[in-house]
């Protein structure tokens, strides 16, 4: 059997919301141990595409391969797209760590409890083992002293670092970042990007939707530029950012470069 070299592969992903066609047949591959960044203007379909990877948004058409597993969808009689195998989806989602724009921490649980929820109740790991791992992750993101704090007591940057640690607590095969710094004040962006950079240097498989252009160029192995629900251009970041072929990409990068 041939070893699978990719972490995620999407084939011909389509998604519409009513009459609004958001994704128009997108295909891409995210390699194992590499960082794939997705850039583009607001409304280009970036976040919808990322959410199609773990079927938080179920594609109308197309396949998503997560390692050896293939997520399929179909339409019900009412036209709503649903995942074809919910048990498989639960299994695959446990291997995907998702970090959202707005942290999505459980407000009624402290930091350590937020990290333990998945390992204890989804993966059924021993509490002592899960706790030791969680504490090591809080140290990794520089928040050991906040384990007993509640989300409302933390800054936005701290909350997002907790969210990253929570995703890591599940030992995911792939990390998905949906604009992880967009809800942060400018002075808090750097602390979150430092953690993401560290994860990239460790060789983690990651898909990063971001508007931080310089960071995307620096940390990515491959970049997709989306426009109007399609991939307008893709390639190594040095090529995309320094020698863009598409007029739309040149216009998009103009404020930055």
Comma- or semicolon-separated keywords:
257 residues; single chain; globular; 12 strands; four-stranded antiparallel β-sheet; six-stranded mixed β-sheet
Q: What would the principal axes of the Cα set say about the shape?
A: globular
The count of strands amounts to 12
Q: H/E element string? A: EEEHEEEEHEHHHEHEHEEHH
Radius of gyration: 18 Å
| Main beta-sheet strand count, sense and barrel state | 6 strands, mixed
Helix percentage: 25-40%
| Structural class based on helices, strands and sheet pairing | alpha/beta
Q: Determine the number of helices (DSSP H or I, runs of at least 4 residues).
A: 9
**Approximate strand percentage:** 25-35%
> Could you tell me how far the N terminus lies from the C terminus, measured between alpha carbons in angstroms?
46 Å
Taking all residues together, what is the mean pLDDT?
94
> Major sheet: order of its strands?
8-9-10-3-11-12
Q: Unreliable runs, pLDDT <50, ≥5 residues? A: none
Overview of this protein structure:
By secondary structure, the protein is α/β, with parallel strands linked by helices. Helix content is 35%, strand content 28%. The protein has nine helices and twelve strands. A six-stranded mixed β-sheet has the order 8-9-10-3-11-12, sandwiched between helices. A four-stranded antiparallel β-sheet has the order 2-1-4-5. Strands 6-7 form a two-stranded antiparallel ribbon. β9 (174-178), α6 (186-201) and β10 form a beta-alpha-beta unit. α3 (111-121) runs parallel beside α5 and α5 (156-168) packs parallel to α6 (186-201). The N and C termini lie far apart (46 Å).
